[in-house]
């Protein structure tokens, strides 16, 4: 089991160090190799995703990624900016399935913008298709309108499209993930208006025949956006296209109240994956030892579950995180009266200790 460890920039190095510490403590015989990525790689090699880093990523079963970016790189040409490293890795490895769990820990329930009773115990998983849809569909661009409401006017356009195999593979990922959870998939579409999403709905329904043990529900995206704030606990796994998933996963993440707690995973059809916290490199707090490492530690748990088939070890990490929260340990971002403020490193140490 080989892991490419790519800490990146800003708090990336601090939080990944804690996740590596936790992985080491599990004694799983993992081979971990580090490489530069993002701004750090640009500074050393002139490119945010050097060939050597890409090679390591391709050879590994999984990538543990910190975060990339800093305002000092904002003036670089777009292809050289740190964030391009993530897009490069997604493309090179064909990472088409993005997993974003939204879990609201009992102890952090007051950090949510919703009423505690709506989010206490929330545990949903949003699976977003990551390489298709209107974000990548061709043709796109600007032109002079030949029809529509204003023929002759300047207009811009994009193309929404999904092929059958693209929908089939993301649907399978969702049904299989649901099998390991509460066996319910909500497929989110806009079949009432869009051809692409009528097709999406039909294909998901067809794939569902292979998963009779999993309940399938279809929901229009506008209703899903509403239900996520009305009754978020009614969902288990949500599967949707790239654009709807982009929006709904951010909406769902806010239900949990804290960006420092949210892991994510992006997988390909060989179950190779890139695992990273949902937040960025937080240059404002980098180097201060105050960043919350839990999103990265929880990303490492997802890595064990989805790419390395180590369900038990993944559960051990997740249970340990719950334990440290129950002990009242908090990095400053989740601190509240009556709890104990700890540093990034102390939080990592506490998780290691709680592994038991
Ligand atoms: P950010 O997520 O880095 O930070 C937003 C706010 O949340 C900041 O106040 C930060 O201090 C806080 N925060 C984030 N993670 C935290 C943690 N683990 N613990 C405690 N507080 C935390 O977003 P931003 O400030 O908009 O972007 C900063 C840089 O990160 C930019 O260069 C951006 O392009 C990059 N970025 C990278 C990724 C990625 O690597 N996947 C994602 C988003 C943004």
CATH homologous superfamily designation of the largest domain: Isopropylmalate Dehydrogenase
Report the sheet-strand fraction: 15-25%
CATH C-level class of the largest domain is Alpha Beta
Uncertain segments of ≥5 residues (pLDDT<50)? none
Task: Return the CATH architecture of the largest domain.
Answer: 3-Layer(aba) Sandwich
What is the domain total for the residues? 2
Bound molecules: nicotinamide-adenine-dinucleotide
Largest sheet data: 10 strands, mixed
Written account of the structure:
The chain is α/β, with parallel strands linked by helices and 356 residues long. It folds into 2 domains: 1-99 and 263-356, 3-Layer(aba) Sandwich (Isopropylmalate Dehydrogenase); 113-256, 3-Layer(aba) Sandwich (Isopropylmalate Dehydrogenase), CATH 3.40.718.10. It is 39% helix and 19% strand. The strands form 3 sheets. Strands 2-1-3-12-11-4-5-10-8-9 form a 10-stranded mixed beta sheet, sandwiched between helices. Helix 1 (12-25) links the parallel strand 1 (2-8) and strand 2. Helix 1 (12-25) packs across helix 10 and helix 6 (164-179) packs across helix 7 (195-208). 47% of the residues are buried. The mean pLDDT is 95. The site of nicotinamide-adenine-dinucleotide has 22 residues, from loops.
